[in-house]
Amino acid sequence: MSPTSAAHGGIRSRALLPCLLVGAWLSASGAASAQPSDPVAPFLGTWSGVFTTQDNDYWGAEDLLCFPGCSLELYRNVAALLRDPKNKERRFNELAGPASQAEEKRFAAMLTPVGRLIQAENSPETDPKLHCQPYGFVREVVNPLPLTIERDGKNLLIRYEEWSLLRTIYMDGRPHPQHQTPTLLGHSVGRVENGVLIVETARVTPDWYSDATHAGHSGELKGVERYTVRDNPKRLEVELTVEDPVTLTKPYVITKTWLFTPDVKLLQDSCSEFPGKF
Amino acid sequence: MRARNAVLISIAGLMLGASAGAHHSPAMLYDLGKQVTIEGVVTEFQMGNPHLRIYFEVERNGVREKWLAEGGSRTVLMHKGWTGKEVAPGDKVSVIGNPSRDGSKLVHVIYLVLPDGKRLFAEDFDPTTQYDELRRKKQQ
User: Fold this and answer.
1) pTM of this prediction exceeds 0.80
2) Distance CA A227, CA A276 (A)
């Protein structure tokens, strides 16, 4: 069971107690769909996170907290605190605030000296987005706005509303090229194994300002995204494992969920149509 | 501007190690259990990505303090009818929102009260109430 499914599972399993059939439980608890003849098909379409679908009944407070993506550890901890009957009368902020602070400490302990230096230099004023510089790899992959996954021949194309960026996932078995110039979102190769879309990325340009990690990453980053489509409601979950020997001493795992929203059309992002410095 | 940069960089160092980045979760930076109202004069208004930002000056005991209010994101606010011309430098406004956790001059704006008294919801969601509302809904 995925982290986000586990977080929602307490409520769902209670609702299903009368159902004694294991098969029914597996289906309703959001287990991955059976492997279809076209393993890529379940992933196609437009998906929206909690940020733009707040009124959907699926979301819990832990999802709202993690709308820009957050560490698997934080998501699990907050979900567990919220489910604990002992905390029933406590306000969300009393639970999520200390959990967030603990996560900050845990993450700080994982940083290399360079990682710590970068984190210390970050501030609202140094956000590259203020100067219309698009997000780097980690920040874009778990950004709060909708995305569309579509076919491009044998490969997949991910369109992100955030920055209107386009990303090719090569599905034809090719390796990462040895001599490719690094790019913002790097070079990504993918495959579907047991219903999970696994995307491996390398050759990214550094991004010294990231939301999900509160620090940044170097060009040495290697990312592995594991996407799973689940039902009731149909949704896409990712676990992004980030390894970066320059900024991190160990892998860091980030999670995020999107709902299937076929009626949503991606907006054209823009960084210049408003007055001010953008 | 340089002074403000220095302040904000030091804030970032203290603020839970957080980057105060785009689309960050407000619970990481702000004390959502508290609400403050701060009056000041706008020096700069940015209706852009990642967030609405209002730089404003507050006079206290004869000293002018520089403050920054952060609100919702451009895309969501656009859907709510914001245009980016709601306020201009020189406007006297009230900012209602959550204070920073470390007491720095940073506020998470939930409502912006314009010079004519009009009150605008300035966030993508209301962290003061919406987390707990969601929680109650799930507990039912």
Assistant:
1) no
2) 38
